[in-house]
Amino acid sequence: MWSMIARRPRAGVIAALVAVAASLLLAQNPAAAATGYGGDVKRSIVIGRAQDWYDRNVPYSQNLDESTWVWDENHGRKYRPDCSGFISMTWKLTSSRNTQTLTDVSHTINWNDLLPGDALLKTTGNLATEHVRLFDKWVDASTHADFWYYEEGSTATDMNHVRVNVRDIRNDGYHPIRYDHIVKG
After folding, report:
1. In what order do the strands lie in the sheet with 146-152?
2. 101: helix, strand or coil
3. How confident is the model at residue 67, as a pLDDT?
4. H or E element that contains 184
5. If we measure between CA atoms, which residue out of 125, 134, 32 comes closest to residue 85?
6. Taking the model in full, what pTM does it have?
7. 48: left (phi over 0), alpha (psi -120 to 50) or beta
8. Which parts of the chain have pLDDT scores under 50?
9. Residue 127: which of 176, 178, 173 has the closest Cα?
10. Of the candidates 73, 81, 78, 82, which has an alpha carbon nearest to the alpha carbon of residue 95?
């Protein structure tokens, strides 16, 4: 009986020490408090996060005042509700990037390699970026002719889920990119 009584307080003390150590670690490193941001993210999670903003019809805004930004689905972070903020949110980045800096966390891929959660970045002749959309899925995976994408479009359209032909979007100046930390699943 004494051994059982002696073990309980020890286990309680150990649990308390672990809790204190964890809270001290999080206080010193706030990024550790928001786990899952800025690292690997599954394709299904990316599409689910896009669907969440689409279902909520999050209004488009380029307002830089963070008080107007919108929470992601689990209230882990707020993001700017414009095209690049939307992509940042779906990819679970640590902050809202702009169309210029999304290329710091992604790389160009071939059109036929597009998978759910990849993005379509529009560039102009001088390689300035203008807009970005999130690839959802091919209409017919065997032809790779038409596909669906999500976008935080503009103040006139807000959130969109659109079907488009590859030829049309290519001719409009878009090219496919992939988040460096996107994974299967």
Report:
1. 106-108, 174-179, 119-123, 129-138, 146-152, 159-165
2. helix
3. 92
4. none
5. 134
6. 0.80
7. alpha
8. 1-34
9. 173
10. 78
